[in-house]
Amino acid sequence: AEMIAKHGAVSEEVVRAMAEGAICHSRAQVSIAVTGIAGPGGGSVEKPVGTVWVGWCVDGNTLTNCLHLDGGRATIRTSTLTNALQYCTASEHQLWMNPTGHPCPNFRLC
């Protein structure tokens, strides 16, 4: 609650905590977290409708990305999912590899 009060629900800090929390509080090896404003209301000048933060956590490595999407609620939700999965695949070497360039020992792609 303190983090949301300080940064807002739609923020990098919150999506990072969500992605990392999903790993910490489960037996999952991979998590994708999303927080955003799909509309039609709820936007502001600082965070307009279409602002979406996505976070990925794999084997202790966390990445975040802010999206600025156009369209109605359904389009924004669909685009969020598409972007989250495409980025996950495109970032394969960043997410699934440890700093030595080898696959993370605890990661299994099923």
How many strand segments? 3
Query: Please, what is the average pLDDT?
Result: 84
Percent range for β-strand residues: 15-25%
Task: Give the class from helix and strand content and strand pairing.
Answer: alpha+beta
Total of helices: 4
Please estimate the helix content: 25-40%
Main β-sheet, spatial strand arrangement:
1-2-3
Biggest sheet descriptor: 3 strands, antiparallel
SSE succession: HHEEEHH
For this structure, the quaternary state is single chain
Distance between the termini: 35 Å
Uncertain segments: 103-110
Radius of gyration: 15 Å
Outline: globular
Task: Briefly say what this structure is.
This protein is 37% helix and 21% strand. It is of the alpha+beta class and 110 residues long.
Based on the model shown, name its key terms:
disordered C terminus, globular, 110 residues
Break the fold down into its secondary structure elements and pairings.
Blueprint: H1 2-7, H2 12-24, E1 30-36, E2 51-58, E3 61-68, H3 73-90, H4 92-95
Antiparallel strand pairs: 1-2, 2-3
Task: Tell me what the structure shows.
The chain has helices at 2-7, 12-24, 73-90, 92-95, and strands spanning 30-36, 51-58, 61-68. Helices cover 37% and strands 21% of the residues. It has four helices and three strands. Residues 103-110 have low confidence and may be disordered. 21% of the residues are buried. It has 110 residues and is α+β, with helices and mostly antiparallel strands.
